[in-house]
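Collaborator request, handled under Task 6.
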Amino acid sequence: MARATPNACAAWRPGLPAEPLRVDASTVVLAIETSCDETAAALVMGGHDVLSSVVSTQIDLHAQYGGVVPEIASRAHLEHLNPVIARAIVEAGIDESRIDVVAATVGPGLIGALLVGVSAAKSLALTWGKPFVGVNHMEAHLYAAFLEDPTLEFPLVVLLVSGGHTMLIEM
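Structure tokens returned to the collaborator:
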């Protein structure tokens, strides 16, 4: 089984191949999540310090259907993503020029919902001249534990239950 390192991931810059991205204590990441029915943006410094986290839920929107309707979810992301990102930046109390990396969930998830988040993230990365990092939804769940306790040490065993995905993982 491959070992993952929380401070290294592949970053994409326009016209350049992916390269390792190192996160230090001052690195600020804008993270965007649109894999299903919640639109979220957060700013994280140094890989562990959450400066802001804003979530717009679609629970009421989908309740009448008895579950998430993918097309409706995608359209709601289009409507809510820009205000969610703007609010996250304001709540973090930093200028957007201070953002070093833009990240977004690339899968698994609802394809239309993912396209909204990835398109927005890549557009911001290109506009700001910053690297884009695509994040696997399931791996993000795994590494979220490090936000709570950065002292966790490998190896770890994790039971991950998220939507239609359930995994028992050794990391």
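The cover message to the collaborator said: "The helical segments are 59-63, 70-92, 111-128, 137-148. Confidence is low (pLDDT under 50) at residues 1-8. Please let us know whether this matches your experimental observations."
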